[in-house]
């Protein structure tokens, strides 16, 4: 007994340290998501304070989105080559400095430059979050739980951001809101070296041509998707960016095939199960973006809720996620990723279909509350097993690149889904405005148009949910492959013991 006690104590200390490390990296990931919601809500206040034109205000948004979307693959690869903690720290520093700089920007262009720095930092740090989780926790229950925590942080960022924006907005200072994220980022930056272990560097040369072509291609794609959301699908710049993105990303594949140490391992896309998980993650935003986008307006325009009440209502999604995350992580190895994803997709389908019945006179408690809880549970049941399957079998050296693909797929999926849902809703609203029922008074037409747009968005979310269920067939069931021989754990790495 005396010989085993020190081992048990050592294991407890390792678990405690990795728990703190997980909390730190996931907290920074959550900070990025919360801050973006705060910025979106504060845009009108910022525009009024700095006298921004609509073009300048658009660049305040795009200056962040473009480097963030374009540099994700680069951030993951740099983490593999230079060390994931090192790149994570650089990303944290850039992001925090950008947050602080935007708060003191005197006019448009310093603000836009600060947002670009912030987006670059987010692109470097984001893929390292999931990669550090993969490197810290070996395949098994602990990794599944850690991915569950990561998923919860991502899924609840919007609701928490609404709460923060509502609370700080009451103080009337958008600078204070901007400073808060920078201050929290600097605190996490100071703590990270003490609690997060560095990962080994990967040998090999850096693929500069691949990095350049993929970055420009992704920037063009993100720009096209962002600008098509306002109905500009057929404009020359948007079409040109879509064509340019297709050509450049195709060229990236050619370069990658001919490069000895490519930016991205194309072998990640040769396994059917992993591709199915990527497709599920790509489609996931489409099942819930319309709910957040239109319900927020419904709460304020129809039900008369204050911004803080809206935030509290959306916290129900977080409640559903937290309640279902642990169960999803436990069911994945027992039922298989495919079954759990299908269950989640059915939850999302039910939530969207239920909301298509929503009208102006309906009660929040019966018409909305069940759907919000169901959305949270559905997101947990779909995202957690899809992320587990997307990163399964990836070794420590390639975890940065694999994580960057997950982040890039989710980012492109969010932009694509929003563009599609806005286009469908706009078309439905225009049709309702053009042909209103004869017995509807003129002053009620605006409400009719909004209701038609909202219903169309929920129907589109239901279609995305069905698509998730279909692509989950590629993911496969339970993984019955024999586990590889266990290797000696790296120092400070969590060790998972199983018994027959």
From TrEMBL:
<dbReference type="GO" id="GO:0022857">
    <property type="term" value="F:transmembrane transporter activity"/>
</dbReference>
<feature type="transmembrane region" description="Helical">
    <location>
        <begin position="454"/>
        <end position="475"/>
    </location>
</feature>
<keyword id="KW-0813">Transport</keyword>
<feature type="transmembrane region" description="Helical">
    <location>
        <begin position="146"/>
        <end position="168"/>
    </location>
</feature>
<feature type="transmembrane region" description="Helical">
    <location>
        <begin position="174"/>
        <end position="196"/>
    </location>
</feature>
<keyword id="KW-0472">Membrane</keyword>
<feature type="transmembrane region" description="Helical">
    <location>
        <begin position="335"/>
        <end position="355"/>
    </location>
</feature>
<keyword id="KW-1003">Cell membrane</keyword>
<feature type="transmembrane region" description="Helical">
    <location>
        <begin position="367"/>
        <end position="388"/>
    </location>
</feature>
<feature type="transmembrane region" description="Helical">
    <location>
        <begin position="232"/>
        <end position="255"/>
    </location>
</feature>
<dbReference type="GO" id="GO:0005886">
    <property type="term" value="C:plasma membrane"/>
</dbReference>
<feature type="transmembrane region" description="Helical">
    <location>
        <begin position="87"/>
        <end position="105"/>
    </location>
</feature>
<feature type="domain" description="Major facilitator superfamily (MFS) profile">
    <location>
        <begin position="21"/>
        <end position="480"/>
    </location>
</feature>
<feature type="transmembrane region" description="Helical">
    <location>
        <begin position="305"/>
        <end position="328"/>
    </location>
</feature>
<dbReference type="InterPro" id="IPR036259">
    <property type="entry name" value="MFS_trans_sf"/>
</dbReference>
<feature type="transmembrane region" description="Helical">
    <location>
        <begin position="20"/>
        <end position="45"/>
    </location>
</feature>
<feature type="transmembrane region" description="Helical">
    <location>
        <begin position="409"/>
        <end position="434"/>
    </location>
</feature>
<dbReference type="InterPro" id="IPR011701">
    <property type="entry name" value="MFS"/>
</dbReference>
<keyword id="KW-0812">Transmembrane</keyword>
<protein>
    <submittedName>
        <fullName>MFS transporter</fullName>
    </submittedName>
</protein>
<dbReference type="InterPro" id="IPR020846">
    <property type="entry name" value="MFS_dom"/>
</dbReference>
<feature type="transmembrane region" description="Helical">
    <location>
        <begin position="111"/>
        <end position="134"/>
    </location>
</feature>
<feature type="transmembrane region" description="Helical">
    <location>
        <begin position="57"/>
        <end position="75"/>
    </location>
</feature>
<keyword id="KW-1133">Transmembrane helix</keyword>
<feature type="transmembrane region" description="Helical">
    <location>
        <begin position="275"/>
        <end position="299"/>
    </location>
</feature>
<feature type="transmembrane region" description="Helical">
    <location>
        <begin position="208"/>
        <end position="226"/>
    </location>
</feature>
<dbReference type="Pfam" id="PF07690">
    <property type="entry name" value="MFS_1"/>
</dbReference>
């Amino acid at each position: 007994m005396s010989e085993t006690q020190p081992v048990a104590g050592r294991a407890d200390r390792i678990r405690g340290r990795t728990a703190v490390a997980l909390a730190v990296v996931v907290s920074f990931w959550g900070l990025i998501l919360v801050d973006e919601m705060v910025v979106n809500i504060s845009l009108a206040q910022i525009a009024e304070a700095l006298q921004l034109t609509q073009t300048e205000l658009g660049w305040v948004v795009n200056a962040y989105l473009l480097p963030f979307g374009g540099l994700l693959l680069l951030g993951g690869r740099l983490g593999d080559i230079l060390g994931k903690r090192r790149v994570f720290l650089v990303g944290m520093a850039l992001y925090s400095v950008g947050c602080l700089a935007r708060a003191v920007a005197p006019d448009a262009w310093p603000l836009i430059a600060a947002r670009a720095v912030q987006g670059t930092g987010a692109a470097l740090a984001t893929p390292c979050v999931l990669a550090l989780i993969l490197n810290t926790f070996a395949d098994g229950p602990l990794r599944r739980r850690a991915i569950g925590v990561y998923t919860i942080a991502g899924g609840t960022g919007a609701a928490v951001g609404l709460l923060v924006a509502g609370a700080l907005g009451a103080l009337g200072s958008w600078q204070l809101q901007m400073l808060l994220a920078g201050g929290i980022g600097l605190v996490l930056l100071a703590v990270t070296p003490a609690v997060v272990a560095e990962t080994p560097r990967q040998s090999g040369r850096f693929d500069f041509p691949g990095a350049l072509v993929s970055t420009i291609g992704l920037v063009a794609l993100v720009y096209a998707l962002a600008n098509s959301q306002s109905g500009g699908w057929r404009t020359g710049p948007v079409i040109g960016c879509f064509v340019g993105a297709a050509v450049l990303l195709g060229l990236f594949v050619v370069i990658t095939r001919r490069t000895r140490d490519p930016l991205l391992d194309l072998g990640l896309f040769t396994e059917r199960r992993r591709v199915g998980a990527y497709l599920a993650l790509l489609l996931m935003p489409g099942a819930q973006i319309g709910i957040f986008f239109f319900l927020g307006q419904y709460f304020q325009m129809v039900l008369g809720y204050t911004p803080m009440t809206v935030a509290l209502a959306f916290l129900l999604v977080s409640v559903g996620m937290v309640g279902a995350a642990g169960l999803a992580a436990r069911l994945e190895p027992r039922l298989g990723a495919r079954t759990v994803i299908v269950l989640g997709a059915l939850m999302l389908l039910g939530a969207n279909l239920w909301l298509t019945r929503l009208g102006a006179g309906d009660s929040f408690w019966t018409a909305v509350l069940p759907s919000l809880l169901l959305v949270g549970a559905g997101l947990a049941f779909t995202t957690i097993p899809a992320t587990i399957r997307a990163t399964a079998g990836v070794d420590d050296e390639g975890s940065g690149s694999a994580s960057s693909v997950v982040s890039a797929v989710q980012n492109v999926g969010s932009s694509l889904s929003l563009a599609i849902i806005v286009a469908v809703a706009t078309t439905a609203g225009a049709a309702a405005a053009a042909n209103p029922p004869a017995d509807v008074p003129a002053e009620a037409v605006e409400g009719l148009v909004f209701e038609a747009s909202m219903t169309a968005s929920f129907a589109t979310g239901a279609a995305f949910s069905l698509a998730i269920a279909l692509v989950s067939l590629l993911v496969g069931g339970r993984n019955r492959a024999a586990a590889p021989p266990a290797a000696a754990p790296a120092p400070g790495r969590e060790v998972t013991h199983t018994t027959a």
